[in-house]
Design brief:
heterodimer; A: 151 residues; alpha/beta; 3-stranded parallel beta sheet; 8 strands; 17% strand; B: 248 residues; 7-stranded parallel beta sheet
Chain lengths: 151, 248
Amino acid sequence: MVASLHGRTGKTLLARALIDYFILSGGKPYIFDTDAVERRLHLLFPGAARLVDLAIVRDQMALFDTLAEPSCEIRIVDITHQSQRKFFELLRNTDFILEGRSRGVIPVIFYIPDVKADSFEAGVVLRDNFPDCRERLFQRAEAQCAGRLRL
Amino acid sequence: MKPVVVLVGADKGGVGKTTTARTLLDYLAARDTLARAFDSEFPRGALKRFYPKITEIVDLETAADQIKIIDTLSTSEVKVSVVDVRAGLLLDTLKTFNEVGFFDLVNAGEFKFILYHVIGASIASLEEIAEIRPYTDGRNYLLVKNFINEASFFEWNPELLKQYGKLAKGAVEVTIPKLNEMAFEQAELAEVPFSAFVDNKNTDGQPANNSLVLRGYVRSWMNRVTSEYDRIRLIDRLSDRGVETQAA
């Protein structure tokens, strides 16, 4: 799950990097693009990326019911900042973490904060609300994406 | 504990009566309160397929079945009897219960009685409440607003809202919030109590294959309904403890 509070933080860029990594490692990752407007992942990985609109219950089911199924392949969800609230609300209401884990599904959240304070706070709230998730906090340097892992 | 009769009724069809009856039975089970149910959608039943072990299908218009309910109140080990009254039959059922002396026994303190009246957001409901009020004096009268499609109950019309306010005086209002239609349908098809659906169990108690998302919706909804029943102290109302009821 790749998320951030505001737009233009390099989320989709990170998602792409992750997807490319897994493909180069010989896998066939499932990709979910929640951006119904820009659809970048959907365009970049035709046939492999599924577009889901979290405002529609049927799409919510297509996403979460699939994510909860055990699978050998990695699943990557690029969460647009507009969908972020809805996404994590669903995560909480469906008790996804508990059920997913009971089926061997390991949830990992990549959260990208930007320079604004509320963005950092949102990341902390996320970490506190989903303590069972492994979380990686990335900070984007001025000119490039620098990864700094912090558990 | 004295025997209690909870009459779940609506004279207007389509207000979600059986659905709310299901939430009631689920809540009672969760609160370790044994209950039996009478399903008056004779002959096929509507409630029975969700609670087959505790539900009996009855025809409320026959004396034999009325006897089956009332005469067994004192003898049954299960103290709480939930009667799901077929749509359109509520007023008649109240009249019949009156004629056979049931309310005399309630007044004498032999039995407890709760009227769980499910209403829709229409003028017809106001007429219904008016007709039913004579049977509710000094009793536990629950006005259950089931928000199936509506966003509000009479708030859109100040005149109707005023009328409703007068009629509802002394009644205990219960709000059943809207449940997503797809979630509701999948729960219906599953033919198990809501809590079993949420736990993803089928009729045999084995793992089912229901949608995680839809189960989440039902879980959130049931939590809200449970809070409502807690708020109105439903269990106290059923027990000998009781809750002070206001005269209309």
